[in-house]
């Protein structure tokens, strides 16, 4: 492919388009906390908007914010950032944001789900753009505090002001994203690749492969503790090597026996059939069928999600991990 992605870094971006703007961060969970703290530490004016007093409210207060009810945060805001769960955004928009929309306001997303699948259809006189961190919220905060940043994707859906991209990049900079890089994309590309990635590898694929390998060893009579270190705990070290030095760096660090077994057996486990299933999963996202299924599941109170969490919490691998926590923590590097 000849296309080269447009990537922006700190030197291409300025915070100016966000200076003096009143920013409402709706939600104070995984991303909400990271965004509110990073944006505030970057000198921007942030108010946290929440539905009710509770855990998030207390956490925001403990972090030095004075949270407001969602609509009160929105009424005052120039920029509204949606960091409540994807499935909650439609209702929050309809009941707490739409009634207070003014021409020239900005609606900002960290994932394109609600715009791409048309659950939220804003009027044409506001800007709609996205800054999507390519990493979990607590890491977005941790990297920022340590002087780094998690890469982000930026995209513009509506550009009423003519300045939407500059504003997206200003937020990306304040979040720490442009310390690494901000890649320009579309809502469609971000939404589909993010869902495909988390389902097939980041969350679904990795979790199920680790679980399947662990359970296979245990079924064969090996000790759960040995199976846990082999199939779950050591994966971090292997992935860290890939992160730091690429696949070749990882391969240099493991034995020739592991390399040979890896090249031959890996392809038998992750084979054509697995690739066919990956394509099937990706098509289900692209066709909108996954979104339809998730909205329907949410409408029934998310029973499959609750069951998954309950089963994982009780699983032998999770219990074994908890039992080994002390050993794992003792071994963790101290600096
Ligand atoms: N979690 C991540 O690391 C991550 C990464 C990239 C993008 N995103 C995107 O960021 C957005 C926020 O996701 P998150 O995982 O940080 O959310 P989350 O589940 O951590 O959000 C929790 C927050 O939303 C509030 N909340 C929960 N249910 C609510 C409801 N029904 N109505 C109103 N508020 C409610 C909670 O009080 C809490 O403050 C989503 O669009 C998600 O796709 C998340
Ligand atoms: C952190 C992830 C998996 O990358 C994000 O996309 C999410 O939905 O939580
Ligand atoms: Mg996601
Ligand atoms: Mg993601």
Structure description:
Residues 5-185 form the KARI N-terminal Rossmann domain. Pathway: Amino-acid biosynthesis; L-isoleucine biosynthesis; L-isoleucine from 2-oxobutanoate: step 2/4; Amino-acid biosynthesis; L-valine biosynthesis; L-valine from pyruvate: step 2/4. Its cofactor is Mg(2+). One of its GO terms (molecular function) is ketol-acid reductoisomerase activity. The protein has 335 residues and is an alpha/beta fold. The protein folds into two domains: 7-185, 3-Layer(aba) Sandwich (Rossmann fold); 203-270 and 302-331, no CATH class. The protein is 59% helix and 12% strand. The chain contains 16 helices and nine strands. The protein has a nine-stranded mixed beta sheet. α1 (30-41) runs parallel beside α6 (137-145) and α9 packs antiparallel against α13 (272-286). Bound molecules: nicotinamide-adenine-dinucleotide, (2R)-2,3-dihydroxy-3-methylbutanoic acid (XAI) and magnesium ion (MG) (2 copies). One magnesium ion binds at residues 194, 198. Nicotinamide-adenine-dinucleotide is lined by residues 27-32, 50-51, 56, 83-86, 88, 92, 110-111, 132-133, 136-137.
Structure described in brief:
The protein is an alpha/beta fold. It has two domains: 7-185, NAD(P)-binding Rossmann-like Domain (Rossmann fold); 203-270 and 302-331, no CATH class.
Instruction: Estimate what percentage of residues fall within beta strands.
Output: 5-15%
Lateral strand order in the biggest sheet: 1-9-8-7-6-5-2-3-4
Q: Architecture of the largest domain, according to CATH?
A: 3-Layer(aba) Sandwich
Bound molecules: nicotinamide-adenine-dinucleotide, (2R)-2,3-dihydroxy-3-methylbutanoic acid, magnesium ion
């Amino acid at each position: 492919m000849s296309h080269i992605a447009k990537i922006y870094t700190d030197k291409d971006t300025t915070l100016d388009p966000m200076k003096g703007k009143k920013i409402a961060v709706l939600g104070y969970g995984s991303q909400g906390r990271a965004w509110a703290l990073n944006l505030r530490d970057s000198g921007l004016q942030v108010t946290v908007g929440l539905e009710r007093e509770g855990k998030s409210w207390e956490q925001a207060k403990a972090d030095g914010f004075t949270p407001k009810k969602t609509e009160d945060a929105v009424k005052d805001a120039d920029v509204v950032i949606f960091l409540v769960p994807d499935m909650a955004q439609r209702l929050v928009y309809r009941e707490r944001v739409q009634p207070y929309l003014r021409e020239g306001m900005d609606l900002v997303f960290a994932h394109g789900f609600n715009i791409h699948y048309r659950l939220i259809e804003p009027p044409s006189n506001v800007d709609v753009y996205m800054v999507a961190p390519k990493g979990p919220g607590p890491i977005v905060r941790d990297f920022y505090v340590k002087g780094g940043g998690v890469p982000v994707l930026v995209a513009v859906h509506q550009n009423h002001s003519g300045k939407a991209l500059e504003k997206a990049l200003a937020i990306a900079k304040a979040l720490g994203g442009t310390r690494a890089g901000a890649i320009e994309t579309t809502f469609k590309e971000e939404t589909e690749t993010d869902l495909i990635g988390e389902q097939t590898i980041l969350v679904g694929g990795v979790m199920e492969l680790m679980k399947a390998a662990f359970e296979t060893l245990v079924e064969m009579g090996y000790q759960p503790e040995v199976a846990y270190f082999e199939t779950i705990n050591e994966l971090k070290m292997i992935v860290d090597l890939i992160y730091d030095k690429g696949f070749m760096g990882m391969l240099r660090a493991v034995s020739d026996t592991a390399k040979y077994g890896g090249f031959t057996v890996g392809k038998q486990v992750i084979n054509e059939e697995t690739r066919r299933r990956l394509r099937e999963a990706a098509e289900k996202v692209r066709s909108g069928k996954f979104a339809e299924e998730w909205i329907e599941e949410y409408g029934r109170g998310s029973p499959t999600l609750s069951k998954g969490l309950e089963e994982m919490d009780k699983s032998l691998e999770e219990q074994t991990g908890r039992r080994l926590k002390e050993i794992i923590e003792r071994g963790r590097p101290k600096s």
